[in-house]
Amino acid sequence: MTLSEYLSQFRMQEARRLLTTTDHKLVLIAEEVGYNDVSYFSNVFKKYYGVAPRAMSKGE
Fold first, then answer.
1. Which of 2, 34, 49, 60 has its CA 20 to 30 A from that of 42?
2. Is the dihedral of CA 57, 26, 50, 14 positive or negative?
3. pLDDT by residue (tens digit) across 14-45?
4. pTM beyond 0.85
């Protein structure tokens, strides 16, 4: 596993944890895991998990 792959995996796992355990808004979670663009974050998340981040969020 490359450093880039590890970093992406870590970010996605942390984003999933935040989505399922907090009520933070998606834009805040994206920023917390290192993405400045929430649309790009959503696309990466969906590619990684197969579902949109909103579908996995605690509040929805």
1. 2
2. negative
3. 999 999 999 999 999 999 999 999 999 999 99
4. yes
